[in-house]
Amino acid sequence: MRKYALVTGASGGIGRAIALKLAKDGYSLYLHYHQNVQSIRGLLEELSIYDGEFIPIQADLSKKEGYKILSDNIFSIDSIIHNSGISHYGLFVDTEIETVDKMMMVHVTSPIMLTRELLPKMIRQQSGTILFVTSIWGQTGAACEVIYSTVKGAQISLVKSLAKELALNGIRVNGVAPGAVNTAMLAHFNEEDLDIIKGDIPMGRLAEPEDVAESVSFLLSKKAGYITGQIVGVNGGWYM
After folding, report:
1. How open is the CA angle 147-109-154, to the nearest 5 degrees?
2. N or C: which end of the chain has fewer CB within 10 A?
3. How far apart are CA 55 and CA 45, in angstroms?
4. Structural domains in the chain?
5. What is the pTM assigned to this prediction?
6. Can you give the pLDDT at residue 185?
7. Is 172 helix (H, G, I), strand (E, B) or coil?
8. Computed from CA positions of residues 17, 19, 21, 24, in that sequence, does the dihedral angle turn out positive or negative?
9. Cα separation of 57 and 31, whole Å?
10. E strand or H helix at 177, and its extent?
């Protein structure tokens, strides 16, 4: 029987890697994106070698109506991967209310409402998996990324509480917390900054998107059938 998963933010580096891994695992995919049409087209070409159904859906999750546009285009669903995200770097005292609102909407409000809309489908079948791609900074916090750390911490709390509520419905809720990943999100760091970061990581390198995707694949699989409410750090030993 065909399994369907939604990957939000599928046009980004981590989202693309997750989509490719899940297609290899046999999933059909709803591929959410906002603006990066070219990236989604490229991803669809890469996915064409797999025997699955791959459906792109455009929606702006920074807007109040974004989650509904997305949920209205989803029918069968077995797994939800909340990967969509934006970063903000700067001093807390300089943060504008518009930035706070946008970060909250993308990382917290839209995922909450999207999950609420799709949950009845999972509850009816008494099975499903929900996974958040959160962050190391949601676990430990980061200066100059206070709002980002805050919303990622909220995701972690959501994982832990929702997992308890849904366990008897056969629905597991987990998260992965990447450290520094070699994607466009690190574009504002220069080579010297990146070398300093690598020097702080015990494994001596940045994560690749595929490192995150492999962990997502495991947590969605039957091998993780007794794991719920957990946050798996994918950070090379940077935070334990």
Report:
1. 50
2. N
3. 12
4. 3-234 (3.40.50.720)
5. 0.96
6. 82
7. strand
8. negative
9. 6
10. strand 171-178
Distances (CA, A) of 191 to 114, 147, 180, 188: 38, 25, 14, 10
Best CA proximity match to 216, nearest among 81, 84, 33: 81
Task: From the candidates 27, 30, 67, 148, give the one annotated as an active-site residue.
Answer: 148
| Structure tokens, 104 | 């909250």
Tokens of 204: 């001596």
The 3-state DSSP class for residue 39 equals helix
- 50: annotated active-site residue: no
Cα angle for residues 4, 114, 136 (degrees, 5° grid): 90
Length of the chain: 240
- Decide: residue 169, CB within 10 A, 0-12 exposed, 13-18 middle, 19+ buried: middle
Tens digit of each residue's pLDDT (9 = 90 or more) over 138-167: 999 999 999 999 999 999 999 999 999 999
